């Protein structure tokens, strides 16, 4: 068996979620990786990678091209995998469509080469699914697989001859504007500090910043906070946002709606600060503080 992992490269480094996907893929034997655009050298240094397939002229932000390229080399593999990120969730279902196989999204455990565990019903149940497709197309959740290291390997790099012009739509990437942050990546941060509607406005949302700095935390938000314009979209945690499972999740002024819990309830330790003792977040919290966040946050900052 040979698995192919579609990697995502950010600032010249392989994203942690992709390194987790490589770790997951090692369950299937030999692992090749695919890099679209720059970053093949960083990919070649990943331990456990046999071969880097490289298509420098393509970009993973154009899912039509990326999926067509993947389809053109898919027959060489038993499993095609990516992290369950926005890009992975954009590209792999298209690939599954092109191959006419059933995509298996959000895998959190691999039982054997055909059998996978994934959450369903907003994380309220786990389904164990078995696939009889010749090629399995999976996205895997980074938080559930310890990432391989960034260094230590020396895989060969092989350019893919792009003989797929007939199937790749003539879409060209003009530019990519990524929001940049000094903070850790939300989906792989060790600590996440999330704010909700209880923070009342965008200016107050910034009360989280100094505390996140002290904790080395990524900042997350509830959908209500995002929809109210307190925080940008990419900070949303939950069923329709990002899935996180940090060692410490601190929820400030958010109620803990089921759709929010779907994105964070697997965190190792959950701390909730909420003025309402009946708030559902306290049902999943390991530590709860019933208090006014506007009193507590300055005190917390001071104490830290
Ligand atoms: C299909 C669908 C998908 C969804 N996906 C998501 C998702 O991905 N992520 C997500 O988060 N939501 C999602 N939602 C929305 C979700 O149902 C909730 O509406 C949302 O999570 C509520 O956000 P909140 O907790 O910030 O706001 P609220 O529910 O309004 O909670 C605010 C909390 O702040 C507390 N509070 C107020 N003032 C203070 C104070 N001074 N000090 C301390 N605490 C205070 C209140 O007691 C309250 O508990 C989805 C909904 C649907 C229908």
UniProtKB/TrEMBL annotation:
Similarity-based family: Belongs to the ETF alpha-subunit/FixB family.
UniProt entry tagged with the keyword Flavoprotein: yes
Cofactor(s) this protein requires: FAD
Protein name listed in UniProt: Electron transfer flavoprotein subunit alpha
The organism's place on the tree of life at top rank: Bacteria
Keywords (A to Z) from UniProt: Electron transport, FAD, Flavoprotein, Transport
InterPro entries: DHS-like_NAD/FAD-binding_dom, ETF_a/b_N, ETF_a/FixB, ETF_alpha_N, ETF_asu_C, Rossmann-like_a/b/a_fold
Cofactor binding, note field: Binds 1 FAD per dimer.
SMART domains reported in the protein's UniProt record: ETF
Domain Electron transfer flavoprotein alpha/beta-subunit N-terminal: 3-180
GO molecular function: electron transfer activity; flavin adenine dinucleotide binding
GO biological process entries: fatty acid beta-oxidation using acyl-CoA dehydrogenase
Keyword check for Repeat: no
Function as written in the Swiss-Prot or TrEMBL entry: The electron transfer flavoprotein serves as a specific electron acceptor for other dehydrogenases. It transfers the electrons to the main respiratory chain via ETF-ubiquinone oxidoreductase (ETF dehydrogenase).
Listed Pfam families: ETF (PF01012), ETF_alpha (PF00766)
Binding site for FAD: 197, 222-223, 236-240, 253-260, 274
């Amino acid at each position: 068996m040979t698995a192919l992992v579609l990697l995502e490269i950010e600032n010249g480094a392989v994203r942690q979620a992709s390194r987790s996907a490589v770790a997951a893929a090692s369950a299937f034997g030999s692992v090749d990786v695919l890099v679209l655009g720059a970053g093949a050298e960083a990919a070649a240094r990943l331990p456990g990678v046999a071969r880097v397939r490289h298509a420098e002229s393509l970009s993973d932000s154009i899912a039509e091209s990326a999926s067509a390229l993947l389809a053109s080399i898919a027959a060489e593999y038993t499993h095609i995998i990516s992290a369950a990120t926005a890009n992975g969730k954009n590209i792999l279902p298209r690939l599954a469509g092109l191959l006419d196989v059933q995509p298996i999204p959000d895998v959190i455990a691999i039982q054997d080469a055909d059998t996978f565990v994934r959450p369903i019903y907003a994380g309220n149940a786990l389904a164990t699914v078995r696939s009889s497709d010749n090629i399995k197309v999976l996205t895997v959740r980074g938080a559930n697989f310890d990432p391989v290291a960034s260094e230590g390997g020396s895989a060969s790099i092989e350019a893919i001859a792009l003989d797929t012009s007939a199937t790749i739509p003539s879409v060209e990437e003009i530019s990519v504007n990524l929001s940049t942050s000094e903070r850790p990546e939300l989906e792989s941060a060790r600590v996440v500090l999330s704010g909700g509607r209880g923070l009342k406005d965008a200016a107050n949302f910034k009360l989280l910043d100094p505390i996140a700095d002290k904790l080395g935390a990524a900042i997350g938000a509830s959908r209500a906070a995002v929809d109210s314009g307190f925080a940008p979209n990419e900070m949303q945690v939950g069923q329709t946002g990002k899935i996180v499972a940090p060692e410490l999740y601190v929820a400030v002024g958010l109620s803990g709606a089921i759709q929010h819990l779907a994105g964070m309830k697997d965190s190792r330790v959950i701390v909730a600060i909420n003025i309402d003792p009946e708030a559902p977040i306290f049902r999943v919290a390991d530590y709860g503080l019933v208090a006014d966040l506007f009193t507590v946050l300055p005190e917390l900052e001071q104490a830290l």
